[in-house]
Amino acid sequence: MRKILFVACLVLLSTSVAMAQSKLDAxxxxxxxxAVHSLDVGDKPNHAYMISQGSCTATxxxxxxxxxxxxxxxxxxxxxxxxxxxHGIFVETMANGDxxxxxxxxxxxxxxxxxxxxxxxxxxxxGTGKFKGAKGSGTCSGKGAADGTSVWECxxxxxxxxxx
Length: 164
Known about the structure:
about 160 residues
């Protein structure tokens, strides 16, 4: 009976270690979107749907002891005046060449077509190599510049399948 109880405790302990989440703290510098396509909706002034694509470079952050390097985001926007909401996919390339795929959605304000500030929520959908089966979620806060560039600070938690 003691052996069964001991084994049960070991299973519970290993499960809790496997489910342990690690913290993420990353900073990104993003270039002005390289591709932007906009369609005026026509129902009211300054209402448009857009699709855009851009790239970012990590200035701080690591996941699973691998430094974050760069990423590309493709997103859909709805803009009404200076209010903007979006959702998209961000594909991050880590320093070891593996990739992490994120889904995200958020909102922010713009001025003259450039982001002033914004926030979004992200979820890790999957990855390659070491990050295959990764899970995680968190938030990002961003500030834009008049030239179309932006800086984002992201926090959250993640679990790697290899941690299980």
